[in-house]
Each structure stands twice: as C-alpha cells, then as structure tokens.
Amino acid sequence: MNPVASVSLDLDNLWAYLKTHGDPAWERRPSFLPSAVPRLLDVFGEQGLTTTVFVVGADAERDDGAGAVAAITAAGHEVANHSFWHEPWLHRYSADELEDEVARAEQAITAAGAPRPVGFRGPGYSVTPQLLDVLKGRGYTYDASVLPTWIGPLARVYHNRTAGSSTNAGDLFGGFGKVKAPNKAYRWRDNGLVELPVTTMPLLRVPIHGAYLLQLHQISPRLARGYFRTALRLCRATDVSPSLLLHPTDVLTATEAPGMEFFPGMAVPGREKVALLEWVLSLLRRHFDVVGTGEHVARVVGTGLRERDPVACG
Fold it and tell me: What is the torsional sign of CA 198, 202, 205, 207?
C-alpha cells in the first residue's frame, strides 16, 4: 500500500492578490473564480481526487464564491477556512480580531452550503499561538499554515520590489527561522491541534508547490518536471508524506488574471499550466495514496506525532 499524501487548494481570488500587492484595483473586488473553479474541479475529477479547498470568507459571501463553495462541496471535496479578508498579516491581529476573522469566515462558508470547517490555513502562512488558541476554542482539529522553508525573506524582497505602497509588507512570509519547522505532521504542545505543514523539498527545504514549479517551467519544462520528481523521491526516502498546495493561478492565463503580471509563472500559457498540473497529480498518485488535508490528518493522528511548542510558530 502506498503512503499517504494530500492535495489542497487555497482559493485565493484576484482581489486578494492585488490587495496584498498594494494595488488599489482590489477595492473593485475583481474575481477569477468563475474561470478557475470549474477548470480545477475538472482536473480533480479526471484524476479521481478528493481534495481540500481553503475558502476565503469574503468570497463565500458573494454570488460567484458561494457558487464555488456549492460546486466544491457537491463534488465531495472538503471546504476549510482561509480567513475572512485574506490578510497575510494575521500575526499582527489581536485575539479578538482573530476570533472575528475565523468566525466570520465560518459563517460565510456554512451559509454557502458547506459543513462547518475543522481545518484552517492562514493567508501568507501566517500563524501565531493566539491564532492556534482561537482555532482550538472553536473546535478545529488541524491547522495547515506552516511552510517550513528558508525562502520567506527572499519572497518578501521580491514582493517589496514589485508591490505598490503597503504599510503591511514589512514582515510578510516569515523569516529564515521557518526552516527549523518540521516537514511532517506534528501536534502543538498544550493545544493539541495537529499541524500539517505545506511540504517543502526534504533536505533542501525549498518550496515544491504550483507557483514554484511554474516559475521553473517558464525556464525549462524539463527542469520543472525533474525538480518535482526529485522532491517526491526525497519524500519517499525520508518518510515525508507530502502535502501539496495549489492555487487558482496554477490553471489561469495572464489575461484571466489582469494585474498579476508580477506573479510567478503567469507567462506560461494556460494549456501548459493544466498539462503540468495533470502530470504533477498523476505522478503524485503513482507513488502515494492521495487524499484531502483533513483525511491526511485523520490518517496520521494516531501515529505518535511529535510535539512542538506554539511559541516556535512565530
């Protein structure tokens, strides 16, 4: 029997990317969900996959977002919480602000027809002890906000060079210390929540999710595929059960995401993006039993997970 792996989708919308990037066009709340969601569900269906989709509450309140939640739920995928306003600076929120952010997203998601979420991912991999306490108090069973890599400060430099004016960009994406976080599921000590980190390449600790593969694909399709093959080989060799992260931009063309020319991989044609995603998922399925994030957590929860102090998550 193959070891377990999971696939999750952060359903970040066009307006959320523009907001983080400091583009005032976000205030018009442009959306690419009607293009992205059917395409992604088609790929998942063709691959026979049940995934987890982390939904932004502010989108679940609008017609296209509520329709997306309904379609995702009807297809059998888990819907999890990705905050209400998708602000990657949740680590600056007070406990009351975090409570409101999580609760409002829950209400919007359930109003759109999905079950009450039990999993959470912070935008921009933002997580704090206060957030973990809020999640525990609200009955969540897992968090999936940690990206164990050293690349955060480099991503922040790139962001600051390309973004418009923003007073919130100073500490986005974490510091070099994130590389010390485990690359496998673990429990937060004294809290009990399971953390399922977004997997990075074992040993090298560089990201392996969609945007990074597409950036490599832009340089050389052969390079991107070799990179991902190597990542899966290392996962199997080091007993890491990969948790693969996707975004709508993994299947969208540049014309479908106006204003996002700054984002990695947006120069790759849409058909090539879909073909790469199909190849990635096929390869993952060949070597692992692929499920959604919640199911991944359920399968590893009884395996004697190590514990980590919540103060280490900042």
Answer: negative
